[in-house]
Design a protein that fits this description.
Two copies of one chain form a homodimer.
Chain A lengths: L1 H11 L18 H15 L6 H7 L14 H15 L10 H18 L15 H12 L8 H32 L3 H15 L6 H17 L4 H18 L6
Helix pairs in contact in A: 2-4, 4-6, 5-7, 7-10
The first copy, chain A, binds a DNA duplex through loops.
DNA sequence: GCGTATTGTGTACAACGTACAAGTAACAGC
DNA sequence: GCTGTTACTTGTACGTTGTACACAATACGC
């Protein structure tokens, strides 16, 4: 319970107690510096590089020192994520049609995950209840203004839209993580397995898979842009929401 | 390279070498038993309980023994997942309209993840190239027959549909994992934070968030069914694919 | 200078995947 | 039955993780 209070205070009051009359030894770091070191490390080497030991090392300090500034690792991750949310650009387009507004929201999230792929791999449940998330939530809900949706449906639609963007980003983060772990690209992974696979694979047993898999594989090999699944999916998502909003979305 | 061959052989030839004239000490286990122990453990206690030590313990054997049957842990996870795929029921409905066929495919995947939530948390890239995945892929592609989609689009549409179901299942798995880790439900988590949160939260600064969040929160507290986000999302996904398939999907 | 509050450090534990070397059981040929 | 070969089993060891706990260092109010 006091733990809850502690973390929420850290989120909302990044500067802590007012300066001046403080008793003991002077702190050598700040919460902000710890959070920034975590973000920088995650950006550079991925979330799995963010260990308490490694963050401490980046700050020239012994691991346990971090626990003076942050209750535990999960709180640090919360602070990192809310910080990203807080820094997202939030352009308002009240005069644009709803589809463009939703596409903009999706694009903002997409950009977040492109810049910080690790953010997509954090669980969406029990989010950081900080100023970043609140500003993001407020902003994104307003993109659904004048769509004729009741509040519960508005929230569900936003969750659906955001969830799609995060899922797409997770897939791409999975690919990158596997490439970093193994040192070989996805393309090399498939190329290495192709010959072995054909030895055990019966084309007549899986005719559709053979044909479609070959088409999809060569399309991917030829002019593959990694954002294709995202572009395709986003169009479907917006079409799906269009069927819900219908003509009620006047603008 | 030989490693690749080894894993693919394990996937496609579960019984290994033919019985009879074998030289050394008789194996006390089989690959199948190891895989089944892994699945049982993941079903019972979640994927994070599936350590080599723990699986070995379930089989009454020392951890390193498993490495005789399985190259490493990631191969074990591949075998576990392909086994699930292989056992999925695959009812064909060639005479049904396309929307029902896609809904059936989604439902089959949904049921997989309901029964084995840990399967949704495994990365979708670099999948297990075994008989289970191939049968699943073939079956699910055929649900798109007579939709008028070219092969590349058919694959993209299937990936989109399956990706949505997996993402929804991941969210629910995240919730369950958090509940198992902390010992308190999501509802309790929000209840505990509510009072603290209101101390720092400015309702006038986030009017839409306040109103919609309260509506969504009380709707969730009142008559919440956990599958709501899935049902809502699936309807949007199918509507989105409908806009793509249009009237070309004759049946 | 002294007590006290605060920050920084060192050590320790249990868990993880798995490399490596040694031990053990079962067969083939003699 | 004996021995050599092969395969399965085991014990030990390393480096990694988050963090509990006891203690050392520092700065302020008095």
């Amino acid at each position: 319970m006091a733990e809850v209070r502690r973390t929420i205070d850290l989120l909302w009051f990044p500067d802590g107690e007012p300066e001046g009359k403080r008793r003991g030894r002077r702190p050598g770091l700040t919460v902000a510096r710890v959070v920034e070191a975590g973000i920088a490390l995650a950006d550079a080497e991925g979330l799995e590089a963010v260990s308490m030991r490694r963050v401490a090392q980046e700050l020239g300090v012994v691991p346990m020192t971090l626990y003076t500034y942050v209750p535990d690792k999960s709180a640090l991750l919360d602070l990192m994520l809310d910080r990203l949310y807080l820094e997202m650009p939030r352009a308002e387009h009240p005069d644009r049609p709803w589809r463009e507004r939703l596409a903009a929201v999706a694009g903002e999230n997409r950009r977040l995950y492109t810049t910080h792929p690790w953010a997509a791999t954090l669980p969406a449940s029990r989010p950081p209840l900080g100023p970043g998330l609140m500003a993001k939530y407020e902003h994104e809900l307003r993109a659904f203004d004048d769509c004729g949706l009741d509040d519960v449906t508005r929230d569900a639609a936003l969750t659906f839209l955001i969830g799609f963007v995060q899922a797409a980003a997770r897939s791409e983060a999975d690919v990158r993580a596997a490439e970093a772990r193994t040192g070989s690209t996805d393309f090399e992974w498939w190329q290495e397995r192709g010959p072995v696979f054909e030895l055990v694979f019966d084309q007549h047993r899986y005719p559709t898979a053979t044909r479609v898999g070959a088409a999809a594989g060569s399309a991917m090999g030829a002019a593959y842009e990694p954002g294709h699944a995202y572009e395709f999916g986003l169009a479907r998502v917006l079409d799906g929401l269009a069927a819900l909003i219908g003509t009620a979305g006047s603008r």
